[in-house]
């Protein structure tokens, strides 16, 4: 009977170890290969998901575009996008623009005297109907304008 019990435990232990190893490997792949997404579900099963935008680099006195991507389920209305916690001297050129489809390009402008920052975490929020809102971090780096 002892032999029977041992033979049952060993395979279970081995399969448990293999699952952990495979799970750890898959977890690393998921972190490096997937976009970070945040979602919210509202009334009548409406869902809104915001993909974390890629980090941007701005030069003082210059502009750059940031792509905002959303996924919607049951939400037909245009989605308002807002940017908060921007570094000093950075503004959104087309702040009132809404996303009608699943993505939109927004222009960020750094003034000549914009604060030089590295890995600054601003906040992007997608707002839909009935108070449906979801936020993600936007990493902004501002570098010094070089003399031409």
Widest sheet: strand ordering: 1-2-4-8-6
Low-pLDDT regions: 1-33
**Percent helix among the residues?**
10-25%
* Largest sheet: number of strands, sense, barrel closure: 5 strands, antiparallel
Give me the secondary-structure category.
alpha+beta
Question: What is the helix tally?
Answer: 1
Helix-strand pattern: HEEEEEEEEEE
Mean pLDDT: 79
Rg measurement, Å: 23 Å
**What fraction strand?**
35-45%
The overall strand count is 10
> How far is the N terminus from the C terminus?
85 Å
Q: Write down the overall geometry.
A: elongated
Word description of this protein:
The chain has 148 residues and is α+β, with helices and mostly antiparallel strands. The protein has one helix at 2-33, and strands spanning 37-41, 47-51, 56-59, 63-73, 79-84, 90-92, 98-99, 103-110, 120-127, 133-143. The strands form 2 sheets. It has a 5-stranded antiparallel sheet with strand order 1-2-4-8-6, with no helix packed on it. The longest helix has 32 residues, at 2-33.
């Amino acid at each position: 009977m002892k032999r029977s019990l041992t033979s049952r435990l060993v395979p279970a232990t081995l399969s448990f170890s293999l699952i952990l190893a495979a799970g750890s490997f898959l977890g690393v792949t998921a972190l490096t290969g997937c976009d970070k997404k945040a979602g919210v579900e509202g009334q009548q099963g409406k869902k809104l998901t915001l993909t974390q935008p890629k980090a941007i680099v701005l030069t003082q006195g210059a502009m750059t575009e940031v792509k905002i991507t959303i996924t919607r389920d049951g939400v037909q209305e245009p989605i308002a996008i807002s940017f908060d916690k921007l570094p000093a001297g950075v503004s959104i050129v087309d702040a009132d623009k809404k996303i009608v489809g699943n993505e939109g390009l927004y222009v960020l402008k750094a003034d000549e005297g914009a604060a030089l920052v590295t890995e600054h975490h601003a906040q992007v929020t997608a707002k839909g109907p009935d108070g449906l809102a979801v936020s993600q971090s936007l990493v902004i780096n501002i570098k010094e304008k070089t003399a031409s």
